[in-house]
Specification:
Blueprint: E1 7-12, H1 15-25, E2 29-37, E3 40-46, E4 54-59, H2 63-68, E5 77-82, H3 86-95, E6 99-100, E7 105-107, E8 110-116, E9 122-128
Parallel strand pairs: 1-4, 5-9
Antiparallel strand pairs: 2-3, 3-4, 6-8, 7-8, 8-9
Length: 130
C-alpha cells in the first residue's frame, strides 16, 4: 500500500473560535467548511502554501471528547509546524498573541520553539537546517 496521512482530527470547543485562531492568528487557509447537521460541520484548515496534511477541526460531542480538548497528547508536543522562515513566523505569531512556552532555541536539526494553540495543545514551530 502507498498512502499518506491527509488529515489529523483536532477536538475543539467551538468551530468559529478555532477557525479564528488557526486562520486569523496562524495564517492557515480555511480549506473546507461544510454543514453536516445542525450540530456538526466538516472544517479543514491547512498551513498556507502547504500541500500536505491539514487539520479536521471536530467539535467535541460528548464528555469524554470535551475532556480531551487541549490534552490530546498528554501534555507533549502534539503537532509540528515546519516553516521556511522561523524568525518571520515567530514574530508574526507573537504579534498575533500566540503564546510561546519557551524562547526559540537552536538544535542540531534546526531552530524551534514550542507554542500553545487556543486550547493548550503544544506545537513545535520549526525551521529545519538546510
Amino acid at each position: 500500500m502507498r498512502g499518506r496521512i491527509t488529515l489529523t482530527t483536532l477536538l475543539v470547543e467551538d468551530y468559529d473560535r478555532a477557525i479564528e485562531f488557526y486562520v486569523g492568528k496562524l495564517g492557515f487557509t480555511l480549506a473546507e467548511d461544510r454543514v453536516l447537521s445542525p450540530d456538526k460541520r466538516w472544517v479543514v484548515v491547512r498551513p498556507q502554501g502547504g500541500d500536505g496534511a491539514g487539520l479536521l477541526l471536530a467539535k467535541a460531542a460528548n464528555d469524554r471528547q470535551r475532556a480531551a480538548i487541549g490534552d490530546q497528547s498528554g501534555g507533549r508536543v502534539f503537532l509540528f509546524l515546519e516553516t521556511d522562515n522561523f524568525t518571520r513566523d515567530h514574530a508574526a505569531f507573537t504579534q498575533h498573541g500566540v503564546r510561546f512556552v519557551e524562547e526559540p532555541r537552536h538544535e542540531a536539526y534546526g531552530t524551534v520553539a514550542v507554542f500553545e494553540d487556543l486550547y493548550g495543545n503544544r506545537w513545535d514551530l520549526i525551521e529545519m537546517n538546510a
